[in-house]
User: What shape does this take?
Amino acid sequence: MRTLNVALGERAYPILIGPGLLDRAAGVTNALVAPRLAIVSNTTVAPLYFEKLAGPLRQAGVGITAIVLPDGESHKNWETLNLIFDALLKERCDRTTTIVALGGGVVGDLAGFAAASYQRGVPFIQVPTTLLAQVDSSVGGKTGINHPRGKNMVGAFWQPKLVLADTDTLGTLPARELSAGLAEVIKYGLIRDLPFLEWLEANMAELMARDAAALSYAIERSCANKAEVVAGDERETAKDGGRALLNLGHTFGHAIETGLGYGQWLHGEAVAAGTVMAAELSRRLGWLTQSDVARVRDLLARAGLPVSGPKLGADRYLDLMGHDKKVIAGKLRLVLLQQIGTAVTCGDAAATDIRAAIEDCCA
Ligand code: NAD
Ligand code: GLY
Assistant: This one.
């Protein structure tokens, strides 16, 4: 097992990464919180892993409330959030109850938002079971739900007390979901860790074959990158750079997710196509070469990801991108690549270039 730390002062917490951690959760969580947990999961993950996590905890004397949500991005909304509140209230969960998210990023974002707001805030633990959640969404405290007009538009920052990433759970992950997680892994290499990007280029075949050592290394290195960025800019308030850089490809990608309807494209797939758009725009600004863009496209394609977006029309993309959380006073800020391995925020790309980059990258 490897332990990383998210250095956030009094809100600091460990990320535990390794095989067999679900069975050992009792030993870790007992020291942290009162012996009452509400475990939030979904109809796909609960049959696979709920008892593995809950059984030993129950035996250790922990009271457990099970909250099983419908599965899918299309359920990341008010209605599903309310199912969590209904269950917490029905079971008379009090302020000492810890909410545990057992699942992918959708469960994590929903359960985290519930933890941030139930009785004005209760402790929270992330037990991520997708690659995407293990490398990204479980770390850093962003929680929330989608609005029909925009992705992740309602939410809160609420840091977990602990992240427990059991790498054995990746054994049951569908191939398409594994690829979606790799989009966020590649992101770290592109924005701030060139040696990691080179390692990914050399080891993509092993990752796609689910080689345990390669996956563990990729998770660890991704979490180390994320922890460092979050520790430096917890609430994404830095004027330049900072946490916003973790959103490479996301402004384009969120437009794809919202434009097609949540759940049509996976988040990671939309981020992958969005990353190619960001790279193409960076080329138009003179920062990347044609071969740099091909390098980005090639790595994403080798990870089984789409490298062009759906034809929504550039106007629709631009309209949807106007709802992005990085829009300040009506001005769109995009995360672009100054060079491979270095991202920047850019608030003055010409609309004609943005439009051309989108059109170039739509199938
Ligand atoms: P997801 O939560 O929808 O999970 C993907 C699918 O895999 C689901 O069907 C799920 O039930 C299933 N699944 C989960 N674990 C499994 C396992 N071990 N075996 C078999 N099936 C399993 O999707 P995701 O990719 O994990 O997360 C995407 C979400 O995360 C998006 O809503 C995105 O906005 C959000 N996100 C949040 C942050 C953040 O910082 N909070 C960062 C990145 C993404
Ligand atoms: N996934 C982007 C962030 O956590 O800031």
